[in-house]
Amino acid sequence: MAKPNLRLPFLKKYRDRHGKLRIYHRPTGTPLPGKIGSPEFMAAYHAAQGLDTTTAIAPTLTVVKPTPRLRTTEEGTIDWLVDKYYASDQWKRLSPETQAGRRRMLERFRADHGDKGYATMQAIHIRALMEEVPGGPHPKRNWLKHLSGMFLYAEEVGLRVDNPCRGFKRPTPPKTDGFHTWTDGEIAQYRAFWRYGTVPRLVMELALETSARRGDTTRLGPEQMKSGRFEFMHNKNGVDVSFPISDELQQAIEAMPKSNYDTFLHTKAGNPRSAKALGNDFRGWCDKAKLPKHCGMHGLRKGCLRILAEAGCNILELQSRSGHRTLSELQKYIDKADKRFAADRADEKVKAHKQKQAAQSKFGKKIAA
């Protein structure tokens, strides 16, 4: 009888796009048929483990840790191309966050289509497969972007003459304001609840004052502080930034207990916090401070740029903090800046210009006389 609650190591489980549960032996990538604990499942499982399946099919057998075996794939298949892509320089140049998201998508893709040839994949096939991706335009767009990355690699190294993901328009998500930009009131409310000397306060000041993305925030530490400045690289696009440490951030850092760890944010064991865990923790800290649900960590990055824009910083000055390469990337981050500040500055410039013109005209008349 099948025992669905049987706990066995080295299993990888997920549901495919049709909702069907698929189970693989993680070290070898072997698909395991039937229900967990059934004779056919246990036979396949023990075979993948390298055990004698004629005598070792009982679910109660003590599990022996196998010697990991390399996944073997047939050359010319999508399975083979995925493995080549993972080992490529193009893959290694991706940020860890991008790699994680792309790997999740490619593993699902290869589970359904790994035995198919990659050379015969055409745009018409990509379009049909994209339509099966559940959700709205956002997941479809991300699916296409990740798959295109792999086929771009194949094109660059001569495994294909083209990229089948190129040539048709990507799904366009509805226009939104994106992540909420923190207001001055929300920042003050958070600061009033979380005092200096607490991890929640340190996290907020790091994200707000550095405009770092969540993954970059987890990597910040004393090593990035040099001569009163913060100097680090935005991991997403490789842009280096350097700027003075604000009084608020300096106080938040100094208020924390001293440690010898490499990062400001770490687990009890001293390891850097993961970006995902930090995001979940921050959501809870905002809830305790009774802030709206739309207040998230990425909104602090936008809040930083809003504050800089309202203070009159120009595009180059904004980019020196945010790491954006282009104005189009930066624009959506400063759309929420109060335009009245810019209007006031423009009015002062016009007044000064008129005064200068009047003075020059008056001086010219004196010379003429």
UniProtKB/TrEMBL annotation:
<dbReference type="InterPro" id="IPR002104">
    <property type="entry name" value="Integrase_catalytic"/>
</dbReference>
<dbReference type="InterPro" id="IPR010998">
    <property type="entry name" value="Integrase_recombinase_N"/>
</dbReference>
<dbReference type="GO" id="GO:0015074">
    <property type="term" value="P:DNA integration"/>
</dbReference>
<dbReference type="GO" id="GO:0003677">
    <property type="term" value="F:DNA binding"/>
</dbReference>
<feature type="domain" description="Tyr recombinase">
    <location>
        <begin position="178"/>
        <end position="347"/>
    </location>
</feature>
<keyword id="KW-0238">DNA-binding</keyword>
<dbReference type="Pfam" id="PF00589">
    <property type="entry name" value="Phage_integrase"/>
</dbReference>
<dbReference type="InterPro" id="IPR011010">
    <property type="entry name" value="DNA_brk_join_enz"/>
</dbReference>
<keyword id="KW-0233">DNA recombination</keyword>
<feature type="region of interest" description="Disordered">
    <location>
        <begin position="345"/>
        <end position="369"/>
    </location>
</feature>
<dbReference type="GO" id="GO:0006310">
    <property type="term" value="P:DNA recombination"/>
</dbReference>
<protein>
    <recommendedName>
        <fullName>Tyr recombinase domain-containing protein</fullName>
    </recommendedName>
</protein>
<dbReference type="InterPro" id="IPR013762">
    <property type="entry name" value="Integrase-like_cat_sf"/>
</dbReference>
